Structure formats: structure tokens, C-alpha cells
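I am hoping you can look over what I have pasted underneath with an eye to the fold:
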Amino acid sequence: MSVGPAPKRHARALSPETLVVSLLMAALSAVICMQIISRIGITPNTSIIGAILAMGLARIPLGYLARFRSLERQNLVQTMASAGGFAAANLGLLSVAILYLLGKPEMVVPMLVGAAIAGVLDLFLVYRIFDSDLYPASNAWPPGVATAQAIFAGDEGGHKAMRLVQGVVVGAIGTHFRLPMAGIGIVFIANVFAMGSLGVGLVLRGYSTQLFGLDIGKTYIAHGFMIGAGLVALAQAIAIILRGRKPAAAASASEVPERGPTVSPETVRRATLEHFGLFVLGAVVLALVSGIWSQMSVGQLVVWTLWAAFAALVSTMLVGLAAMHSGWFPAFAITVIFLTLGLFMGIPAVPLALLTGFVACTGPVFADMGYDLKTGWLLRGRCADLAYELEGRREQLIAELVGVLVAMVMVGLFMKMHFALDQLPPISRVYASTVQAVANPAIARELLLWAIPGALLQAAGGPGRAMGILFATGLLIKNPIYGIGVLVALVARLAFGTKWMEIREAGLIAGDGLYGFFSAVARTFF
């Protein structure tokens, strides 16, 4: 009797050889990213840093380290490293700083608990709905593609490695001269319509004073646009979940998967409803541990809890759409919108600050894990072996979960140092000042007025392009040079195609990320 080949087993995230290195990377990434977001106001993507470190370890002539020649083990290391850095900066420190700046140090630990709850819930949500009709693995997820290309090139060497090195060198040099090399690289991976919308939005925001005689950044035009686009995107997502309809546009011809989505519409529908309930429970826990339940009436507490859960879920899904299509995740902008709406609902300052921190802790984790799952999906052969792919996703979930928990521990250990030195994220200062603002009826009218074109553009582009979401993202961010780079790269892509940029585009993203990371470290510590 013949016996078939044994099923392929994925490397384990908790195996000693993987876990020790990953824990060290996650902890180091957390400390560095906390410093960087405090000093610079941004958080670098540490996925590529983790991948390069793992590739370097694999080439050290020691028997123990030779195990890191496994691409899947390199994927687990970079997954845990990126989770540690992103979560420490964008979840933990960012959220606790809001309460500290409001003069409520007794609320800092409860907020850290709320941040951990929000982050963990987000991890399980993206794990459950990744590679569905709503969030296909075959879509762009550009940073994930770049990390996978870097790992492939490092493993295979030769022509691929040379093209990657070329891209890295050009990306680093261009970034030194403040050119948007990551954006240029992403254009050759992502959807043309999505990136075009982002680029136009960035240019209009950056040059609005010259073009229109007003600074869009000092108005609520962009916020209104995002509200309208977000509502339509939410309706489109519901339609996909209920009807199983796929988004209209795929990322590119090279991104065609071996099989259809592995997550059914029924699973997405169940996961979405269950996570709304879990976000409600998370908000209740936050209300209890912080003590704000005693500061509000029953009616106010119900409104606060439901609004916190709704905002967390919708913010997550909108940030996920933007991240999937463009590599950008406008978590800050979307959180400000829910914060502003909370002002009009009459939510008191401290409960509103806790709600803001809770909502702000959802989107970044979704985006980060989405990128890492995309990397793993490519490294595992685009789901050629379903059992192997699903096992790999489970191991990545474990790695990401450990990374987030390490991040929360590091925030707990180092946040008092940041408070004492006044090293706090600039975004937290914006949140804290906005929480204390007064609702203005004129703002409400402006939001409603500009929600209309946002809704129309999102409806016209459809869910597969997210044109309204990304145009609004561009309007919310002041970075015109990035917009110009995106539009120029789009012209080059339409004129010459994408083949000449294959692997080089990943190198541009990696070079931008590497230069940005190490220059940020230098500016922070030296």
C-alpha cells in the first residue's frame, strides 16, 4: 500500500528558534518606534527591517541560525517585529498620551488596557476576513508585496537580487533628497484609479491656497468628503457581505491568485457582526476600568458604548480599504472625524478622549497585519496549497498577537519616561486639543455639504477602486510632493507598463523604508 507525501508543515511562531529572535526584534522595534513617533511624528514600517535582519541571520555560518533560511520563518520574524513597532507607537503611546495631556494621569493605565483590547480584537478581525471578496489577498497591499519581493530576491540572488538592489539604492538616494520613492514604487503595484485619486487629492490639498485662495487644511472640506465617501464605502461593503459580490478591479495582471477567495461572504458577515459585539464588550470593559460609567447617565453610557463600537468597526474597515488599495492607512484622519462627530453628540471630554484612543487603536493594526498576511500569501505560493496557507495565516496571527502584547508591555515600562521628558506623539496633542473644542453648527453644515461629492465619487468608482476614500485621504494629508510623484509615476506606468519596474518597485519601497528608518533613528537618538 503506497503512502502519499506527508502534509507540508509551516514553521511555528512559538518554536524557540523563531520566538527568541522575534521577541527581541519586537521589543527593540517597540522602543525605537515610540521614540520616533514622539520626535518625528511618524512610524516607519519595520516589516522590511525585520525581513532583512532575518535574511542576514540566515547567512551567518552557525547551525542554529541556518534555520532562518526558511522563508516562512523570515516572514514570522518580520510579522512580529512590525507588530511590535506599530502597536507600541500607534496604539499604546499614542492613546495613553491623550489622557496624560488632558491632565488625567489616573486614566493612563485604563487607556492602555483599552488599547490592548482594541488592538487584539482588530487582529482577529483582519485574520478572519483577509482573502474574502471584501479584502482579497490578490489585491495590492503594496508594502506586503515589497517585503515579499525583498525576501524572494534575497533567497534566490542573481538577476532578481540585482534588480532589488538597484531599486533600494535609487529609493534611498531619492528619499535623501525628499522625493516620494515609496509612493512611486507603490504606483506600479497598486490600482491605477485608487492611486490617481490619492495623488490628485494630495496635490489639491498641498496647493489649495494657490489654486482656490483657501487652505483646505483649515476647513472641514476633507472631513466632510471622507464622511460621504465612508458612508458609501460602508454601504458597498455591506452589499459585498450580503450578496457575495466581488470588487470590480483587481490590483494588476500579475496578482491573479491561484484560487478564489478562501473566506466566504457568510464568514465575513458573521465575523463583522460578532466583532461589533466584541467591540461593544471592549468599550464596556474600558468604561468599567476607567470609572467613566459613574460619570454618565445610563442613556449617555449606552450611546457612548454603541458609538465607540460602531466607530471602531467602521474605522477599521475604512482604514483597511485604503491600506489594501494604496499602502496608506488614514487612521488619524478617520479618528478625527469620529471625534468631531462625538463632539456634536455631546459626549463629555474625558469619555470622548477614551473613545478617541479606543478608535485610534483599531485601523493601524488592521493595515499592518494585512500587509504581513499579503507577504505570507505570496511566500506560500498564492494559496496553491490551501491547508498550508491557512496554517501559515494562523502562525502569523500568533506572531502578530505576541508582537502586540510585547508592545503593550514596552509602553507600560517606558511611558512614564516619555511623560517626564514630554516626548509625546504630535497626533496625541491634536486629539487632546480637539476633545476640548466646542461644537459649532457651521462645522456641521460644512461636513454635510462636502459629504455629497465624497459619496458620489466613491459610488462612481465602486468598492474595487475606493476612489472617494483615497481622494479624501489625499485632502486630509499635506504632502503635495508625494502627490506629484504619484501622478508622474502613473503617467510612466500608463506609457511604459509595469514589466520594466518588476522587483525594482519593491526596491524603491524598501530603500525608502530603510533610509527613513535609519535616518529617523539617527535624528531621534543622536
Notes: Residues 386-420 form the longest helix (35 residues). Confidence is low (pLDDT under 50) at residues 245-257. The radius of gyration is 22 Å.
